[in-house]
Amino acid sequence: MLNVSLRQLEVFVQIALHGSVRAAAESLHLTQPAASMALAEMERQLDAPVFDRERGRLRLNARGRELLPLAQELLERHAEFGRRASGKLESLAGDLRIGASNTVGNYRVGELLGDFVRSHPQVAIRLRVANTGDIAAAVLDHSLDVGCVEGPVTHPLIEMRPWRDDKLVVCARPDHPLAKQRHLQPEHFAGARWVLREPGSATRTTSERALAQLPPGETVMELDQIEAIKQAVTAGLGIACLPEVAVTDALATGRLAALKTPFLDLQRKLSILLHREKYRGAALEAFLLSVS
Prior knowledge:
Layout: H1 6-18, H2 21-28, H3 32-46, E1 51-54, E2 57-60, H4 62-85, E3 94-100, H5 102-107, H6 109-119, E4 123-129, H7 132-140, E5 146-149, E6 158-172, H8 177-180, E7 193-197, H9 202-211, E8 218-223, H10 226-234, E9 240-243, H11 244-252, E10 257-259, E11 267-275, H12 282-290
Parallel strand pairs: 3-4, 3-5, 7-8
Antiparallel strand pairs: 1-2, 5-11, 6-9, 6-10, 6-11
């Protein structure tokens, strides 16, 4: 009969999240030998490893990937049992791992987290900012509890919930020829030099959808940060589709100009991502309620 302890489950989950025994030990305030022993004992009881060892890193193998969400659920249910048994139903604690795509994480984080943090100050928020593809992958492998992204994600295990409407604007330096053109038409964009986000970004996907409605141009640069793209456009290196919320200040101060392009579809929906099979504990349910 298996006798896997809560401590062993905690070590297993933290190694899965951090990729090393040392980092897991630090997060749990254990010595590294103690964490190593806990993992070794759990694997002995399972009679199988749950990680592949690769150049000093530990990566979940197929068995580990199968067991990780179950271990997370057991730990969350144990915490929930303690909260209910103590009668502290209004006091949530623990960690919540949230992923946000760049637009959300850099420009809408107050909207996303504000109400929840004010209502539940004892819950530690671990926020990861990356592109939409990376956030979706992290929700799928259970390294994130929930995500908020800019683009559509199609996967049978992902549930998407609409959150906010969002739009992009085509930006140029104020002295760019397109910024001086009155009554812009699609043909005016022939040969335009574009600065784009990297593949996997939802902003890139929306930009490519817009570019498909225009005459051929040239991609002169790919950057993985919106602020870097703003700097490139300000320097006159090209034009770009950027989130409206990200360029408000630059437009107000005259560093950038927004081109009027009613012929382009630059609308999109920001969405909450959830793993359909993930256990939704009290903290996650409270967060979902706060963003509903």
